[in-house]
Structure formats: C-alpha cells, structure tokens
Amino acid sequence: MGGGWPCVGTMLGSLLTGTGLASDLDDETAVVGDLDRVERLLWVLVLASVALDVYTTYLGLSAGLSEGNPVMRWAIHDMGFVALAVAKLLVVCGAVAFRARRPKYGTTIALGLALPWTVTVAVNTVALATL
Prior knowledge:
Layout: H1 6-16, H2 19-62, H3 70-79, H4 82-101, H5 106-129
Helix pairs in contact: 1-2, 2-4, 2-5, 3-4, 4-5
C-alpha cells in the first residue's frame, strides 16, 4: 500500500485504524520529553559548573595563581573578585533570556555554557592540586 511512499502507508494506517498517527505522536512526545530532561540536567550542570568555576578561581587567586583570561584578569585587578561573579551572572542571565526567546535552542545554549565551564573547573582543580 503506498508503493515507494512509506508515509502514505502510515497516513492510511492512521486514518483507518488511528494507530499509525498515535504511535508517531507518542514517539515524538517521548523524544521531546527526553530533550526536556536533558536540557534541565544541562542547566543544573551550568549552575554547578559556574559556581565551581567562581570558587576554584577564587581559591587559585588566593593561592597566588593568576587568572588566565586577560579581560577577567584586568576586571578582577581593577574591580575586585566580585567582577568575576558579576560577569558570570551576566552571561547566565543573557543565556536564559536568549533561551526564553528561542526555546528550541535551549539544550544547545545550556551545553554551550556547561561544556567550557566544566572544562575550566577541571583545569582549575588540576592547577590547585599541583600547588
């Protein structure tokens, strides 16, 4: 039924029995549910990694290490350590605002923050461990 057109068979199956469309919708809902869960977990990772980044940076600076980012090095030198926390807060708020305007990119936005900050925490931790 439908020859080379697999969607015709699915459409006819859903029209005649209601099963084809229902199972397609169930599959799509399951995928969306999985993406929602992944996105939520990524945002938790964003919050954890930014907090750990700020904390490990504070520990490193207190131990005499220097900030690797030249812009943040200047900001911390001129405005104090609070500049780092404010910068991170602004980035997270901007990402959340962008996510609110473009929800379909929520997972990508969260991953774009979580990945580099998690790597930064790992680098900071290694640097602290070698003191």
